[in-house]
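TL;DR need structure tokens for one chain.
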Amino acid sequence: MWCISGRNHQQKDQAEAEKGIDKLLNVGTDANPNENFRNTTNDSMFVSLNSDMPFYNGYLTEDKLPQALRSQIATLSVGAIVGPYKEQDFLVVSKLLDKKVEAKTSTTARHILISYKGAQMSEEKKR
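>> reply
TL;DR here they are.
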């Protein structure tokens, strides 16, 4: 998941940020008017050049996702785009780059050692 964003301090600034995000999302950049958020083939470079937030190349558990994505993440397909939505002082657009489902299992193992007549350890302890 990664995002492009714009700081939101005032209503006028928010409108300008939304306009800029829409251009990056649907139209293109000044450097390359044919490459936009939807069709870029180099996500990390696009984010580095166009975002106020750095590219994050990792997986997040559902509880670490922004609130705006939690209810949607299970049904989103790879490549899906969500936003813009507000996250703290930012307007954010997120793109799902990959999904990995892991079972949340854990095991606690305890070894209970019972000595018995004739066991080597048992005989040594008697000495």
